[in-house]
Amino acid sequence: MKLPEAEKLCEQLARELKPLIGPQTAMVGLYTGGAWLAERLHKLLAIKTPLGLMDIAFYRDDYAARGLKHDPKRTKIPFDVNGSELLLVDDVLYSGRTVRAAMNELFDYGRPASISLVVLADRGGRQLPICAQYCGARVEVPAGKRLRLTRGDDGKLALVLETEHGA
Amino acid sequence: MERNPQLNANGELQHLLSTEGLPREILTQILDTAESFAGVTEREVKKVPILRGKSVFNLFFEPSTRTRTTFEIAAKRLSADVINLNIAVSSASKGESLLDTVANLSAMQADIFIVRHSASGAPFLIARHVKPHEHVINAGDGRHAHPTQGLLDLFTIRHYKKDFSALTVAIVGDVLHSRVARSLIHGLTTLGAPEVRVIAPQTLLPAGVEAMGVRVFHDMREGLRGADVVVMLRLQNERMRGALLPSAQEFFKNYGLTSEKLSLAKRDAIVMHPGPMNRGVEIDSTVADGPHSVILPQVTFGIAVRMAVMSIVAGN
């Protein structure tokens, strides 16, 4: 199965987002893949406010079932969320639960003027009423597989399919 | 081999009873998670929803202000409900046994018990009898262990010194009665600190302390030489039975930390103290309030560390 090229999708997203960037625009990337993509887009779009990075571990809805399994990264939002026009960036949109958690966490920092969701790939399968305003590509993912963004030693981004744990 | 009573069948942290016997990966997991929680405590809304609906019971069979308060703040910042029980003036004084007290609280749907007790091993006893979904965190048992204090000391050291691999840490004072010292020593040796020193008169050292992997010094000046971290312990008046020391003044002269003695440690050494401090007994005010002191940051870090421990155990 051929996956779209992440590097090309990234450039395409940057072109699409360019006209929207204004003085109130701020960007937040979700660890880990979304943070890589956000770092890239933030630079390509020359956004003035510093980039925010977020780990939603403390806001997940499956803590009761899974606990805190990995070591969460520290969320850093180095700008005032109040009144900002936020671009929330993730690599792959699936159930929508990560985005729900991210929005809850963002509102603990302030009240943004707006939030738009930017994703590299949408694999469908939504369990919540959430959609991406900016999406690189729609990707069909076979059952039991997980679509994930990787970053090579050369900094190049690539989409890969992995076998899901417990599948 | 008998399983470590703190770990579940998958080797995950179920109770925190002691830093002794905890693998390096779990200590590191706690410190890394605490690092993320430190970010939460700096925000406008200092609260995350992770323990919403959980009940944390503070069971203090021995008085404490700081530890109880920081556990309470930590639990509240995790959105848990906190119930404080001052057992010293309640059921225990009416003759109820420890396990009966816990069984009664368990019937009130507890999720986490924070236990402080004057008897070493009391939290272990409770952990053996609680239900599988209940978790026990030791907040200090007798002379034995005070693992969250040990962990917050480790967090503080890592915060200022970045890693443990080249550190000389000097622990000074009443090691004999100090559960803080014991918990810190086990953590430091597990995380690979190459030189851990204890500095104290013979009468305030436990027998066989060398077996814990420390170097013993009776001369404070000699022991402080080249130290990166100086940890002062409180002279535990309330635990002193019999005459282990001639007087507090005599102790200060030999083992009190002054600027002059601190100058023998590295120029960028940090000074720590678990509190409460006895100024003029184990530490001079100029040092306690001086540029090397990280005593107040320790208290702040303690909240993030306790948030990490509670959120890790409650999820396992």
Question: How would the blueprint of this fold be written?
Answer:
The complex is a heterodimer of chains A (167) and B (316).
Chain A: H1 6-17, E1 25-30, H2 33-44, E2 52-54, H3 63-66, E3 85-93, H4 97-107, E4 114-122, E5 134-138, E6 145-151, E7 157-163
Parallel strand pairs in A: 1-2, 1-3, 3-4, 4-5
Antiparallel strand pairs in A: 6-7
Helix pairs in contact in A: 1-2
Chain B: H1 24-40, E1 55-60, H2 66-77, E2 81-86, H3 98-106, E3 112-117, H4 122-129, E4 135-141, H5 147-161, E5 168-172, H6 179-190, E6 195-199, E7 215-217, H7 220-224, E8 229-232, H8 248-255, H9 259-262, E9 270-272, H10 285-288, H11 295-315
Parallel strand pairs in B: 1-2, 1-3, 3-4, 5-6, 5-8, 6-7, 8-9
Helix pairs in contact in B: 1-5, 1-11, 2-11, 5-6, 5-11
Describe the overall structure.
The complex is a heterodimer of chains A (167) and B (316). Chain A has 167 residues and is α/β, with parallel strands linked by helices. Helices cover 23% and strands 28% of the residues of chain A. Chain A has 4 helices and 7 strands, in the order H-E-H-E-H-E-H-E-E-E-E. Chain A has helices spanning 6-17, 33-44, 63-66, 97-107; strands at residues 25-30, 52-54, 85-93, 114-122, 134-138, 145-151, 157-163. In chain A, the strands form 2 sheets. Chain A has a 5-stranded parallel beta sheet, sandwiched between helices. A two-stranded antiparallel ribbon of chain A has the order 6-7. The radius of gyration of chain A is 15 Å and the shape is globular. The model of chain A has no long low-confidence stretch (mean pLDDT 94). By secondary structure, chain B is an alpha/beta fold. Helices cover 36% and strands 14% of the residues of chain B. Chain B is built from 11 helices and 9 strands. Chain B has helices at residues 24-40, 66-77, 98-106, 122-129, 147-161, 179-190, 220-224, 248-255, 259-262, 285-288, 295-315, and strands spanning 55-60, 81-86, 112-117, 135-141, 168-172, 195-199, 215-217, 229-232, 270-272. In chain B, helix 6 (179-190) links the parallel strand 5 and strand 6 (195-199). The longest helix of chain B is centred in the last third of the chain and has 21 residues, at 295-315. The mean pLDDT of chain B is 92. The chains are: A alpha/beta (167), B alpha/beta (316). Chain A binds chain B through residues 55, 57-59, 63-64, 66-69, 71-76, 104-105, 108-110, and chain B through 12, 28-29, 32-33, 35-40, 43-45, 47-50, 311-312, 314-316.
